[in-house]
Model the fold of this input.
Amino acid sequence: MKTDVLEQTPQSQAQSTPSPRAGAQMPDQAEMLRKMEAAGTPGPAHQVLKQLVGSWKAEVKCWMDPSAPPAVSAGNSKANLVFGGRFLEEEFHGEMMGRPFTGKTLMGFDNTKQTYNSVWFCDTQTSLVISEGKADSANKVITLECFVSCPGTGQKDMPMKSIYRILGPDKHTFEMFDSTRNVRTMEITYTRQ
Done:
């Protein structure tokens, strides 16, 4: 049986497939490797993360109602640089709604996108919180944005903002804000142990 479809050999398929950058000169392999190595090398933004390395005691304030006093609890964390100083890995131990929990953050700076990025996960939920943002010009305030879902209320993809404030070598804060209502929902004050 004859068909109107032309059969192509692998060789003719390769010849007929246009280059992703048709008409543009592809950089040579050495130049590509140089750019990849530069993008993968820790730089000044990674030194900012180094300030968060150490063992910390934490005071946690959570607001369910912004007009009411916060619930206050204690926690502790330990943070280290991993993968040659490319990422900050923090393990946090605290309480949530009166129950103990453990969470982890992995935070880095993407040299290609020029943004800070973080991933948060813990033993009380099955979701990941993935955030991205920038630092101020003094590299003392890092603002990240993300979307979260709340199993308690059923709300999905709520915009949230988190802010790291480096107050000195022995103190920093982490705040979370509900971007929809523009209210603070949590503040953690870290003091070096």
